[in-house]
Structures are given as structure tokens and as C-alpha cells.
Amino acid sequence: MEIEELWTQFKAEAGESSRVYEQDVKERPGDRERSWKQPFKILATLFWSVLKRLSPARRLFLLATLILAFLSVIGFHFLLFTRESELTLAFAGLLVLLVLVLGDHVLMKRDIEIAREIQRWLVPGRPPDVPGVDIAFVTRPAKTVGGDCYDVFRRATDGPLLIAVADVSGKSVPAAMLMATFQASLRALADTSGSLSELVAGLNRQLCANNQHGRFTTAFLAEMDPATGDLSYLCAGHNPPILKREDGSFERLQSDNIPLGIELNEIYKAGFTRLGLHDLLVIYTDGVTEARNEDKEGFGETRLLSLLQIAGGEGSAFTLSTIMQNLDEFVGAAPQHDDITCLIVRRS
């Protein structure tokens, strides 16, 4: 790897590792305080935030090694210990503690990698083969695992095509667990009879029952008849998908529904439209339009619409590849701050 790429990766990982402690440091010392005590308060807060993330036994072990190091510095000796032996023991103790912490970190990374593989199994790896419908999708979690969910399948052998894209609030493992609940509930409820509104109401009840710490889920769900293009859809607090007609005009598929997992008895109402031949439906999460470059500038819907404006009759995979390539060029070396998912449907 080139030096610039290594340096970019180092800055990104350093920022991620320090973000765990940023909130603790910002909450304790006053932001407006500008006295000589402030640096010491920040160091004390940082030390305490590190200490409380250790197990009780390791806290005692760390304090013992620090006390031993302090005694060697001030020249206090006890029993048969000399200053050199005290310093050596303190260094060895800190080294053992570092090895233990690194071992835990490696095990945790391994578990998260396993969770990522499980999450990949939950969502489709390739679009279903549906005559007259061209589908492409991509997802990129901001962390190892993410909270975005997508699915495309037929409710019955020759039934309507169910399309779903959802975005769980938050990132990483908590969002991924709620995403798994959403995907499992969607598959289970899709096997039952009922309208799209009834299906979404059932999803909402499941997410409300499993909701923790006020997390919610925005979602777009639709049922399409592949033969006629008839599309019933429901947008629950999600970014309204973009529908590009064959004549080049744009429509937004939006409806006044709150996100899932907030109100148990919420009534969800579906809308209706029809996809004509060569019409293009683009469903995405806010990670696409809110992606930022190194200057903190957002990608925005305007850039997305301009890319769709020049899209012709090519396949959905080519259109999706163009969008992601332009998104990567815009973001550059800036770290990804949110999960990115985009799903494209075109009638052919």
C-alpha cells in the first residue's frame, strides 16, 4: 500500500478508536472553562473513562502497577525491591494488561466478523429472477455490521413481488440486531394473507415489542404485479423513492406514515401507482444522499437526480454501478459515517 493510503487508514482508525471516549471527555469538564485546571480535568476524565471500561480485576491490577511505578519514581523501596526491580515489575504488569486487552479486542473483532457473515446470509445475495423486472441492489455498512435491510421476493409462487428497504436508527451491533428482527418478521408475515398495510402493521407491532432505547426503523415497502406494473407502496418515515418515467419526468413515492417501532397502534396507509415499461424506481437510505466528502459537503439529492436524469435504457446494474462510482468519487478519502443501501427496479 502507498504511504498516503496507509496514512488515511491510520487517521480513520484513530478517529474511530478515540470516539468511544469523546463523549465522556466532553460531558465532564466545562466546555467554556479556560483555567489551568482544565487539562488536568480532561486527563482525569479520560483516565476514569478508560478505567471503568475494564473488568474489576483488571482495574485493581492496573492501579497496582501504577502505584508500583509511582513508588519507583519517587525512590520509595520496600522489602527486597529496588528501584530498578519496581520499575521492571510495573512495566511488565502494564505489558501483561495490554496483551489481555488486545486479546479481548481480537476476540471481539472475530465475533463481529461472524455477525457480519450471518447478516449477509439474512439478505439476498442476488436479485430474484422475475420475468419483465430488472432488479439490482447494493449495501455498505458504515461499521462491520449495519442497520440497513433490503429484501425482494414473491409472496407466493406467482404472487406479487414484495420489495423492502429499511433503515434502523443507529449503527453497529444494536442496529444490526434490530435489522435481523425486521427481516425475520418480514419473511414470516409475508407468508400470511393480507394487504400491504396489514403486513406493515404487523411489522410495527413486532418492532415495538422488541424496541430498546427508543430505536425506530424507517422503511419503504411495496408490492408489485410484474405483469401489469401495478404498485402499492408504503413509505414509513423513509426517504421517498424516486420514480423516473420513460419520458424523463420524476415522481416521489411518499406517504404520511411515521417510522416503525414508535406507536403500537399506528394505522399505516398505502399508496398506489403503476410502473410502465422502462420506468426506473430508485429506493435508497439516507446514507446515500447524506454521504460527506472531506470538506463536510453532502452528496445530496440534486446530484442523485442529475445522475438519474442522464440514465438511459441500460440495465439496473449499470445504473446502480454509475451511482456508486460517482458517490465514491465524491466522498474520496472521507470515512463513511452511515450505512449505504440502494435498490433499483426497472420494468423491461
What features would you describe in this structure?
With 348 residues, the chain is α+β, with helices and mostly antiparallel strands. Helix content is 46%, strand content 18%. It is built from nine helices and ten strands. It has helices at residues 3-27, 38-51, 56-74, 83-122, 172-190, 196-209, 286-289, 300-309, 316-331, and strands spanning 133-140, 148-154, 161-168, 217-224, 230-236, 242-244, 250-252, 271-274, 280-284, 340-347. The strands form two sheets. A five-stranded antiparallel sheet has the order 1-10-9-6-7. The chain has a five-stranded antiparallel sheet with strand order 2-3-4-5-8, with helices on one face. Strand 2 (148-154) and strand 3 (161-168) form a beta hairpin. Helix 1 packs across helix 2 (38-51). It starts with a helix and ends with a strand. The mean pLDDT is 84.
Short summary:
By secondary structure, the protein is α+β, with helices and mostly antiparallel strands.
Q: Average the pLDDT over all residues and give the rounded result.
A: 84
Helical fraction: 40-55%
Poorly predicted parts: none
**Which structural class do the helices and strands define?**
alpha+beta
Largest sheet: 5 strands, antiparallel
The topology string of helices and strands comes to HHHHEEEHHEEEEEEHHHE
Overall body shape? elongated
Count every beta strand, where a strand is a DSSP E run of 2 or more residues.
10
Oligomer: single chain
Beta-strand proportion = 15-25%
Strand order of the largest sheet: 1-10-9-6-7
Distance between the ends = 43 Å
> How many distinct helices?
9
Radius of gyration from the alpha-carbon trace, in angstroms: 26 Å
